[in-house]
């Protein structure tokens, strides 16, 4: 584990609070030059608008930024329909959608919203089945059949096919989920809040071992990171809490020393200011420092 050598990307984690200027924040991220906008998916959260509706609106009012759920709530979104929704958004946006997917959590809230209550093992089983179902629905093939314990396809017809090679990123942290990411996913999507930098080596190792066992190169798996913090003009107050120069150094270390290649800003403070500083001050500095350390 170290630097997988992948091209760096930068994004914004948009919390879908109905009281916030969500579309204007998305436009700010797009105009600032960020690559991605991710939206968390908690349908049972009364303050939030629906994630898929918001992603569709973001795609409609932006020009270049790619959008994705960060991450889609599988227990409340059947994978065949989720796959069709994601492919449809990709087609309608001109190839600007990706799919982040999680096994679920907050089971009391999921159950209150009509979803199943699953054990950790059941949730992991369902996620693995969902990956297969989603790939099948994206295939463009007819007569799709899959008989799992949680999900089924019984002669289904797929379509539309995504407009580009849509990537599937898994927001997982347990051993089984990490192995699944290594075998079957295009990317791994943890958050710094629960996958702190000192945990990354062991987690990468599980992904890499599974990738190798499946005949894949570890670098085939994108490593995205939701990073929570605040950009300030004062002294450092800890990890990702300080001036732009500190952010640039810490994200560079995460790229060349800890294997991460895509950074999704989840900022505290004034969102518009944080987005602009991340895009205009930090992203270019990290790209330059990483290129220098790679000898490019």
UniProtKB/TrEMBL annotation:
The keyword Flavoprotein applies. The keyword Flavoprotein applies. Keywords: Flavoprotein, FMN, Monooxygenase, Oxidoreductase. It comes from the Bacteria. One of its GO terms (molecular function) is alkanesulfonate monooxygenase activity. GO terms for biological process: alkanesulfonate catabolic process. Residues 21-230 form the Luciferase-like domain. This is Alkanesulfonate monooxygenase SsuD/methylene tetrahydromethanopterin reductase-like flavin-dependent oxidoreductase (Luciferase family). It comes from Actinomadura livida.
């Amino acid at each position: 584990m170290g630097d997988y050598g992948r091209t760096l990307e930068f994004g914004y984690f948009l919390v879908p609070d109905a009281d916030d200027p969500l579309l204007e924040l998305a436009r700010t991220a797009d105009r600032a030059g960020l690559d991605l906008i991710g939206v968390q998916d908690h349908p049972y959260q009364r303050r939030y608008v629906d994630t898929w509706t918001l992603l569709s609106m973001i795609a409609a009012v932006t020009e270049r930024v790619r959008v994705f759920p960060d991450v889609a709530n599988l227990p409340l979104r059947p994978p065949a329909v989720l796959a069709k929704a994601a492919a449809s958004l990709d087609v309608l946006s001109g190839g600007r959608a990706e799919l982040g997917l999680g096994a679920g959590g907050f089971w009391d809230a999921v159950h209150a919203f009509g979803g199943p209550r699953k054990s950790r093992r059941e949730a992991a089983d369902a996620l693995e089945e969902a990956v297969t179902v989603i790939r099948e629905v994206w295939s463009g093939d007819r007569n799709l059949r899959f008989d799992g314990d949680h999900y089924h396809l019984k002669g289904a017809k797929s379509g539309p096919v995504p407009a580009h090679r849509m990537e599937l990123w898994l927001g997982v942290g347990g051993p089984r989920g990490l192995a699944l990411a290594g075998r079957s996913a295009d990317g791994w999507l943890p958050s710094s809040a629960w996958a702190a930098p000192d945990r990354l080596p062991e987690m990468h190792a599980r992904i890499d071992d599974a990738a190798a066992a499946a005949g894949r190169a570890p670098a085939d798996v994108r490593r995205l990171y939701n990073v929570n913090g605040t950009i300030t003009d004062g002294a450092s107050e800890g990890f990702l809490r300080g001036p732009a120069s500190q952010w640039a150094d810490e994200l560079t270390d995460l790229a060349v020393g800890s294997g991460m290649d895509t950074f999704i800003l989840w900022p505290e403070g004034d969102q518009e200011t944080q987005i602009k500083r991340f895009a205009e001050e930090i992203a270019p500095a990290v790209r330059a420092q990483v290129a220098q350390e790679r000898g490019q």
